Amino acid sequence: MAFVLPDLPYDHASLQPVVGTQTMQIHHGKHHAAYVTNLNAAVEGLNVGDDVNTLIGDLGAIPESKRGAVRNNAGGHANHSLFWPCLAAKGSGGGGQPSGELAAAIDSAFESFDAFKAAFAKAGATRFGSGWAWLGVGDDGKLCVCSTANQDNPLMGRPYADCPCKPILGLDVWEHAYYLDFQNRRPDYIAAWWDIVNWDQVASNYASAK
Length: 210
What we know:
By secondary structure, the chain is mainly alpha-helical. The chain has helices spanning 21-42, 52-56, 64-83, 100-110, 113-125, 179-182, 186-193, 199-209, and strands spanning 131-137, 143-149, 166-172.
């Protein structure tokens, strides 16, 4: 069964002014779509199923001749498939702060929500070149923050991720995610991005990851 580009849970203009319409059209309709197309080509003839998270969690099972292509494109598909639902328009589910068990877990791991935001923002701002910042649930059940290069994902484990975990929130810091809206000002993009984080979705991801 072929991997499929997921539909967005909102229209392309919904995340303005943080993410502009043209950025969304290109990012989802071209970049993410290309990962899906290239992933399907890379796994042709392989028995890998249709769960992309399972696929990236066992890259060692992929023939070496195809592993690089699968790593890059399955990672891109998995990362963006987590990314889109974790966003929502400000005032329509985006912004604010988490509550309940997720808020308590953040306070336990980072001492406060503001301290978590600072650690997460640093992970994104200091990632050299292209990559992602992550909030995830480690094997010990605690939350952790890390970043990965390019389209690597914490589910890939070491050596691809410095904190192997189940990601529940990811921030795309590739330039195509923000350059039309913020040019080279990645820290400004990260600061504005908090206004469109869908904490209800992140809390759902947290419950599933536990």
